[in-house]
Amino acid sequence: MWARVVRLIDANSSFSLESNTATATVHDGLIGGQQKSDHTFICWTLAGDLMVKDRMGKLLVTLKPGEKTKVEDDQSSGRQPFAYNQSTLKVTTSPNVLPLMLMADNVRVAGFIAPALEVNQVFGSVTGVAPNGTRTIEVPAGLPGPFTLIVEGKKNTPFTITLEGLYKGSQVYQKNLAGTIHKGERLTTKITHGFDSATAGDPKKAKVVNGRAEPLQPLKGTLPGIILVSPMEFKRLMER
Asked: What is the residue extent of each domain of the chain?
């Protein structure tokens, strides 16, 4: 199970993943859990602190983003590193554009389709908005791609995009894109990764060594992927 908890209306409330052996609770963030056939419970967090408790409610461990633990016989294995892929692709954009990433399968997307509407269909990915308004998407990138990035202008203004290839959280390469965009205009680029030949056969362990981005071009047609929006969200979008 994988859950994205953006924000709960009641600040004192929480969201929990429960198994026969433990409960993992978060107030906001990106968390996951797995109940295995041997009755062990594995849980992790990519965003937000995750409190893991035994069946009696005793706190076993509090996980920080990027950590996991295994619970067995009411005992925690402690805090351990967690990453779906060792290599990731990170995109950071200036506040005046909305980024959306289409994965190499041409099905799943992660990012933003409106200022207040965030989409995340990619297991192991993280999306967010910083206090200064910059938007970030980080997705597992153990495959060559191509990863398709679309940015939409919020107003007529210059913009910047920073692309980073990361391996185990450390930067391998960085590429900067910039230009001027009009309100409602959509531009796109395709990003591909090269890998160390010794690890390229395993997407989880593949080590990115370089990356390439095509020049930005106008997007033809509609946004990719299938995105379900609730009636309340759709009404809010139409009112903007």
From this structure: 2-81, 87-239
Give pTM, 2 decimals. 0.77
| pLDDT tens-digit map of 77-111 | 888 887 778 899 999 999 999 999 999 999 999 99
* Residue 113 in this model has a pLDDT that exceeds 80: yes
Amino acid type, 18: E
